[in-house]
Write a structure and sequence with these properties.
This protein has helices spanning 3-32, 36-80, 119-142, and strands spanning 86-87, 116-117. The protein is mostly helical and 148 residues long. The chain has a domain at 58-87 and 115-148. A two-stranded antiparallel ribbon has the order 1-2. It is rod-shaped. The chain starts with a helix and ends in a 6-residue tail after the last helix. 1% of the residues are buried.
Amino acid sequence: MTPAQILALVRDIGILCALAFLVFRIYSDGESAVKAKDLIAVQQQLTQNSERQSQWAQEAHDAAIQHTQDLAQVVAVIGAQRAPVILQPAPTASGACPVPGHPPTPTGEPAAAGGVDIRAGINAFELKYETALADCRQVLSSWPKVTP
């Protein structure tokens, strides 16, 4: 072998090594690249997430409307309660209680024996706790429901 052939052989081996390195480098870079099917899967997941969020927003909106209707109904029902609730005082300490006899004739008027009308307190109590229950129902209705 002549020195020119040896130099040509070394040069060809160098070119082959560089070409092999270049092919290896392109192959390894291609493995870490994002593939088209991965992008499609991400886009589908984003679409599903936006649909789920819009569903949750609709549920929260419906729950707010139902809450308003519940509160209006509670206020109307409690406001319609006007009949007095008379709380009679306890019998005296002497133990004197009326002996049954002829019942008095009803006059349609509240008893004047010192009773106290507690209707306003009962209405306030009902309004307070019915409002709290309506708030709880709204929170439960607007809570996101996870569907598989």
